[in-house]
């Protein structure tokens, strides 16, 4: 079986860091290797709300020409909307989802519809809870602001401690490379855990913000 891999991340920062993208690639590549071959891969940097997907169009055309299926890691990486998923399925390319490889088109429609409805209900419950809290006179965001300030102070303190141990070219490294280098040097995060692209990204962000700080 031949596959064309399609990956979507929402921002350029996610694409650079590998956050989300690497996990998708690993899932798709492992599945393709076990069940056939991966003939092409396409990465889309676009919000799931945008239906104008240039890389998806290329992936669909490539799949048609190669007689391949379009392979994605998770359904939400393809789209979060039933209407979009349905329109893509009508284009004559078989869609295979690694998380549910044996799902039929009908089942994929059902899963997408359930996920879309759950997101709608969560949004409604959140809005209702915030409105009720506001009516009670609760100052929304106060506790969050205090917690954010505390976390920022801790992050700045930690960044200052590890600055001298950073590799010389840390500013030009991808987040994945930096995380790997920090782990190889035996460094750990402020919580005592291994570094991952996201925690490396957080560290770089703090270091960039405090670069000119006289302290």
Number of alpha- plus pi-helical segments? 9
Classification by helices and strands: alpha/beta
- Number of discrete domains: 2
CATH superfamily of the largest domain: Resolvase, N-terminal catalytic domain
What fold name goes in the CATH topology slot of the largest domain?
Answer: Rossmann fold
Distance from N terminus to C terminus (CA atoms, Å) equals 59 Å
The helix/strand order is: EHHEHEHHEHHHH
Apparent shape: flat
Q: Identify the CATH architecture of the largest domain.
A: 3-Layer(aba) Sandwich
- The overall pLDDT average reads 82
Class of the largest domain, according to the CATH hierarchy?
A: Alpha Beta
**What percent of residues are in strands?**
5-15%
Extract low-pLDDT stretches.
none
Please give the largest β-sheet: 4 strands, parallel
**What is the spatial order of strands in the main beta sheet?**
2-1-3-4
List keywords for this structure.
single chain, 215 residues, alpha/beta, Rossmann fold, 2 domains, four-stranded parallel sheet, 9 helices, flat
Quick structural summary:
With 215 residues, the chain is an alpha/beta fold. The protein is 56% helix and 11% strand. The chain has 2 domains: 2-111, Resolvase, N-terminal catalytic domain (Rossmann fold, 3-Layer(aba) Sandwich), CATH 3.40.50.1390; 142-209.
């Amino acid at each position: 079986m031949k596959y064309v891999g399609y990956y979507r991340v929402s921002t350029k920062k996610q694409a650079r860091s590998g956050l989300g993208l690497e996990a998708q690639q690993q899932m798709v590549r492992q599945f393709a290797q076990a069940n056939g071959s991966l003939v092409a891969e396409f990465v889309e940097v676009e919000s799931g709300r945008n239906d104008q997907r240039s890389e998806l169009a290329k992936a669909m055309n490539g799949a048609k020409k190669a007689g391949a299926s379009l392979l994605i890691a998770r359904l939400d990486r393809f789209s979060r909307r039933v209407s979009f998923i349905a329109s893509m399925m009508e284009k004559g390319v078989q869609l295979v989802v690694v998380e549910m490889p044996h799902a039929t088109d009908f089942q994929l429609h059902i899963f997408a519809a359930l996920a879309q409805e759950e997101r709608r209900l969560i949004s409604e419950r959140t809005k209702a809870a915030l409105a009720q809290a506001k009516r009670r006179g609760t100052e929304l965001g106060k506790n969050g602001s205090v917690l954010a300030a505390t976390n920022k102070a801790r992050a700045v303190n930690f960044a200052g401690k590890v600055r001298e141990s950073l590799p010389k070219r840390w500013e030009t490294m991808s987040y994945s490379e930096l995380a790997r280098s920090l782990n190889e040097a035996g460094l750990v995060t402020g919580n005592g855990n291994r570094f991952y692209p996201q925690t490396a990204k957080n560290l770089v962000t703090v270091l960039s913000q405090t670069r000119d700080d006289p302290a």
